[in-house]
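Colleagues,

For the teaching module next term, I've prepared a clean inverse folding example: a structure given as tokens, and then the sequence designed for it. I'd like students to try predicting residues themselves before seeing the answer, so please don't circulate the second half yet.
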């Protein structure tokens, strides 16, 4: 399993359908194996006593990842945590985590905040997403 890509997929639970769609797309991708280090909806970390505890939990999950994947829907711009996740990926590790921005399927407007932070930006397309992840993992 040396070719397994460890991913931290950023998401807002209020937009969980896009997250689920992406996971389904990755699960169906041929010849692609990955581990998802995102914080699941039912994870106790969501009951964190304070923001620091949540920040530390996100940082811990992200530490295992090769690539941070962010859905660049316009909602991302308004997410309280998106800037913190970008900061963690870029500043909190000895080697920064590459960021892949995915423009959600059918989206007319996307997050400039996410796109500015991204090492690569792709459209909602299985082959584009998988190739970008493999490229950024190197």
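(Answer key — instructors only)
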């Amino acid at each position: 399993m040396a070719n397994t890509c460890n991913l931290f997929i950023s998401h807002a639970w209020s937009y969980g359908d896009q997250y689920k769609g992406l996971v389904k797309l990755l699960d169906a991708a041929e010849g692609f194996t990955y581990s998802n280090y995102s914080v699941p909806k039912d994870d106790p970390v969501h009951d964190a006593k304070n923001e620091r505890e949540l920040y530390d939990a996100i940082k811990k999950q992200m530490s295992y990842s090769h690539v941070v994947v962010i859905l660049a829907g316009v909602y991302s711009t308004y997410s309280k945590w998106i800037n913190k996740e970008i900061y963690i990926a870029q500043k909190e590790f000895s080697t920064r985590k590459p960021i892949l921005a995915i423009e959600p399927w059918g989206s007319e407007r996307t997050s400039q905040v996410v796109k500015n932070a991204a090492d690569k930006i792709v459209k909602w397309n299985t082959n584009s997403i998988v190739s970008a992840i493999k490229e950024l993992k190197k």
